[in-house]
Amino acid sequence: PGWTLSAASFWRDSDHLVLAVERPEPPTYKMYSTAVGSTEWANVTEMVHSSYVDVSAVSMSPDRETVAVLSTGEGHSDVAVSRGGDLLCETRVYPGFIDIVGWSADGSLLFVESDMPLDLGLDAESRLKNSAWDESMREGVAQAVYAVDPEEGRAEKVDPAWVPDPTVSPDGIWKLHFIDDGKGTSELFLTKR
């Protein structure tokens, strides 16, 4: 009781979904995976770094080893990437914006969209130390897509045309729909394209 669906995503193989659920009191989240059409769920919470609150998006790498979670705390969002429960990298984009877009086919890069110049650093401290930093960037720059290398903890700006639609299964057959009415009721359903 009290659990709500907060995020859903395809795994790269098109046959599985990963879901994030949470409850407000006490603040708790869990993550599950399931095969499309199955009624059996596997708890994969242990794969995720434990400090997430208010999960709004989740994306599993194609090799099912690495998970990216978009969470919101104190009104702004950040992305954390972990493998086996260990944190690989995380962003700090306050006061900016960030969203998960998807993974490269080999799972080595996470695509994100942000109005912070992530190619200058994933967090504010790194960006401030970068010689290309300009104080006018503090409130954000033009929104762009970045390829984040979680192993290296760095990002580079990329052409958005490179990035697949994360709501469409990799084989192009399924479209994932997630509806949240903002009142604690969420629906998840699949349609054939």
Fold blueprint:
Blueprint: E1 4-10, E2 16-23, E3 28-35, E4 42-43, E5 55-60, E6 66-73, E7 76-83, E8 86-90, E9 98-103, E10 110-114, H1 124-129, E11 144-149, E12 154-158, E13 174-180, E14 186-192
Antiparallel strand pairs: 1-2, 2-3, 3-4, 5-6, 6-7, 7-8, 9-10, 10-11, 11-12, 13-14
What's the short story on this structure?
With 193 residues, the chain is mainly β.
Would you kindly provide a written description of the structure presented here, covering whatever features stand out?
The chain is mainly beta. The protein has 1 helix and 14 strands. The chain has a 4-stranded antiparallel β-sheet, with no helix packed on it. It has a 4-stranded antiparallel β-sheet with strand order 5-6-7-8, with no helix packed on it. It is globular, with a radius of gyration of 17 Å. The termini are far apart. The model has no long low-confidence stretch (mean pLDDT 82).
